[in-house]
């Protein structure tokens, strides 16, 4: 299978190449793609060096699958051009997620919706992916009425510039700023830009994408997204109110049975998910599972995942794996 990785030199692109190698995706020809300034440079894949090509050369090569992680503007311009030559695009940007004609896919939840006619497939936002994977089996059993979400998001979600900012501040050095404020020893309650309603784009992604993936626009969602000086992954405090009551033992069983979820929940041994342990892993980790006694049918839980892996690269590769297995490309 001929596979293009668009944005191969970026933080997520680098992890995509790692995940493709780790999972032995059946690549017969790898086509790394990046911006014009990177054309001619090389990237490593399975111990070999591959030369980065331009977008135009990659389209001319007619890959079976193109996995994009190159920003919304790039995707809006070039994903349709790949689709026109028969390539199936799995896009990691926000460009196509809320397009009513495009599928928004977390494979463990809704990959069965995919058809061979889907030539541009959207990968959800990182903070949405980890949350809905934990919520999907619970929604199916108890029906979610309302979600209140607080996120504690890794700087890796912003990119290399943010990681460099934290490192500079830790060392006490001046440098380029990814954020409006210092991130070292700080928490910034503004992920992405603000919208007219006072919420950030990141917060509205949690609202809109959750409803789309779970196929239920009646779910009420409100969110506060916070950037913290952490590298390993995103954490989320989730308060979920159901239509129907639940038993905590059954909630744990449902979560343990969900593909891609690992339950880490034992207060007696101080066992709970943390980004320091999630880093480099593909699962979503769930803990601090407890009833909210302030109102009926309501649950609290803590959800953590490596945002560069399941929140981005791993989910995209899993979509590609499904397409290949079902011969949809």
Kindly list the characteristics that best describe this protein.
329 residues, alpha/beta, Rossmann fold, Dihydrodipicolinate Reductase, domain 2, 2 domains, six-stranded mixed beta sheet, five-stranded parallel beta sheet, globular
How would you summarize what this structure contains?
This protein has 329 residues and is of the alpha/beta class. Helices cover 33% and strands 23% of the residues.
Structure write-up:
There is one protein chain. The chain is α/β, with parallel strands linked by helices and about 325 residues long. It folds into two domains: about 1-125 and about 310-325, 3-Layer(aba) Sandwich (Rossmann fold); about 125-305, 2-Layer Sandwich (Dihydrodipicolinate Reductase, domain 2), CATH 3.30.360.10. It is about 35% helix and about 25% strand. It has ten helices and 13 strands. It has a six-stranded mixed beta sheet with strand order 9-8-10-13-12-11. A five-stranded parallel beta sheet has the order 2-1-5-6-7, with helices on both faces. Helix 5 packs parallel to helix 7 (about 200-215) and helix 5 (about 125-140) crosses helix 10 (about 310-325). It is globular and about 60 Å long. It starts with a strand and ends with a helix.
Mind telling me which CATH architecture of the largest domain this is?
Answer: 2-Layer Sandwich
Shape assignment: globular
What is the mean predicted local confidence, pLDDT?
A: 97
Describe the strand arrangement of the main beta sheet, using strand numbers: 9-8-10-13-12-11
- Given the helix and strand composition, which structural class is it? alpha/beta
- Give the class-level CATH name of the largest domain: Alpha Beta
End-to-end span in angstroms? Answer: 9 Å
Number of domains: 2
Query: How much β-strand is present in the residues?
Result: 15-25%
Number of strands: 13
**Percentage of helical residues?**
25-40%
Give the count of helical stretches.
10
Q: What are the low-pLDDT stretches, counting only 5+ consecutive residues below 50? A: none
Rounded to an integer in angstroms, the radius of gyration calculated over CA atoms is 20 Å
